[in-house]
Each structure stands twice: as C-alpha cells, then as structure tokens.
Amino acid sequence: MRGAFLYLSRQQNVRRFMETSPQAQGLTSRFIAGLHLEDGLRVAKELQARGVMTSLDHLGENVRTEAEAVAAKRQYLAALDRIAAAALSATVSMKVTSLGLDVSEELCRANTDELMSRAQSTGSRVECDMEDSGYTDRTLALVHEMHSKYASTRAVIQAYLYRSEADIEELNRRGIPVRLCKGAYREPAAVAWPDKVDVDRNYVKLMNAVLERGSYPAIATHDEAIVGQCFEFVRTRGIGPERFEFQMLYGVRRKLQQQIVARGFRLRLYVPYGDAWYPYFMRRLAERPANVLFLARSLTGD
Ligand code: FDA
Predict the structure, then answer these.
(1) Strand ranges (DSSP E) for the chain?
(2) CA of 222 to the centre of ligand 1 (A)
(3) pTM exceeds 0.85
(4) Of 147, 200, 212, 283, which has the fewest Cβ atoms less than 10 A away?
C-alpha cells in the first residue's frame, strides 16, 4: 500500500489532473492550510495563539524551469517578510528541487543564498527539507556551504538511511541544527532500512545523539512511543525544554500535539500551503493508509 501511494506521488499525469481538479482540492484541507500565503499565515497566527510555532512550506518540488524556481524563491521571500511583519515565531521549510536543483546547481545555490540571507536579516530560519536519496549529498553540501555564511539554516536527516549516523555526527560537529525525521520516500534496500522496526530503532539512536551533542535539534515525529522516550531521555540527562523542539505536521495527531505543549515542551508545526500539493498529499496517505478511509468517509458524508 505504502509503495503504491509513493509510486503514484511521482506520476506527473495524475499530478496535473489532481492539482487542477476543483473536487480534488476539497480533499486536502486536513493536511494543507490552503492555496495561498494568507492561508499559511492565518494558520500560523492561530497556532501561535495556542503556544505553537510553525514552519511555512510553500508547496512545490522538482521544478523544471528557471522561471518556476525564481517564482518559488519570491514566494519564500514574501513569506519571510510577512512572518517578520506579523512577529510570528515561524521559519520556512523548502525543498532544494523547488529552488531549481534539477535545472542547475548554480541557480539553486543563488536562490538558496538569497533566502538564507533574508531569513538571517529577519530573524527567521530556512529548514532544508530532505528529498529522496538521489539528492542527499547535494542538499547536505548546500547546507554546509550556507551554514558557513549564515546562522539561519537547518538540515533534515532521515533515520531510514544507513548513512544518517555519519551525516548527523558531521552536522553536530559543525553545530548545524538538525530536524530528525524517519523518511518519507521510496528507497531501495541498498540505501535504507526496509523494515519499520529498524527505522524506529535507528531513529531513537540518532535522536539521543542530536539531543546530547547537537545544536538546537528538532525531533520530528508523531510516534507516541518515541516522543515518550524523548521525554525520558531529556529528563535523565538534564536537557532543558529550551534546548530542542518537537516538530509535527499540520493535521496529524492533534491530541499528542496538545500533550507536548501542556507538558511545557516546544512544538513547531509544519504548515504547507500552495497549489502544488499532490506529491506532499500522497506521501501523507502513504504514511497512514487509514487516511484514505478517513477521506472516503468525508467525501460520502459519513
Ligand atoms: P510513524 O510513521 O511510525 O507514525 C507514528 C504514528 O503517527 C502513526 O501510527 C499514526 O498514528 C501517526 N501518523 C504518522 N503519519 C501520519 C499521517 N500522514 N496521517 C495521520 N497519522 C499519521 N520526511 C522526509 O523524507 N523529508 C523531510 O524533509 C521531512 N520533513 C518532515 C517534517 C516534519 C515536521 C515531520 C513531522 C515529518 C517530516 N517528514 C519528512 C516525514 C517523516 O519522514 C515521516 O514520513 C512522517 O513523519 C511519519 O513518520 P512518524 O515519525 O510520524 O512515525
């Protein structure tokens, strides 16, 4: 089931059909704030009133032209300016392929540089989402380069990749903040653990490493057992709640989100908006096939 959704997430024809279908857009509201920056900002303000920080993601990936990459950069610059104007505790999350990595590395580097610079001057941060393993080296190289110029970057590491332990040690050594997630793409067994039990075990190992030796890490998971292990680890090691944050996705496990905030820990929600929603939405379905039943019920009015 997971594989089928991840396969569909990469089908360009289905993507075009879905993203232009008015009916399909009605489906997405559980996971996506809306089509426009205003929607993301509205959700960020509501969350801030409840003590929750946000990371705004202007949806888009694998753009094919320079014009699309420049348009994505402008969207992010506008988001950073609006975040500052509204005094929101918000960062932005972007994918390097939305800023043109598939077009050229120079284009992507120039766009990323401009975003990092704006984030630094507005007191925010650019979180560099991690895409499939074909992009890992280039994304991390860009993160390292940006960190040498700006203090406004965060890397993302996926616990399902065998290489991640070494990547995390290097990021920790350089003092680069890390968001640790399990990993959302279809990867071959040559590069990633195929079994969830191994991914979960590695997640906990890497989580302990970033909490102990990292620089303001983000523990990005909805896994209640792992969140519990995090509470226990920071308690026994005397790591205060100001030294890290939890991150979760908009629309996922709202009760667990409330519990984290009620216990006095920091929580940031990843809030996507925009019209290029199809691949993101399909990855959310792949993570929990029960979501399909939930959507089917909402369509039939049950
Ligand atoms: P797991 O999949 O084991 O889920 C634990 C429980 O959470 C499930 O039993 C279910 O109850 C609930 N749950 C999880 N996903 C759900 C969903 N979609 N709908 C409803 N319930 C759900 N990945 C990546 O490859 N690159 C990236 O840059 C990022 N960035 C990122 C940012 C943030 C803030 C988060 C939280 C996650 C990501 N991810 C990501 C996605 C991540 O890799 C992973 O696919 C999902 O978070 C699901 O894994 P969990 O850790 O939640 O555990």
Answers:
(1) 53-58, 90-94, 126-128, 153-158, 178-181, 218-220, 245-249, 267-273
(2) 6
(3) yes
(4) 212
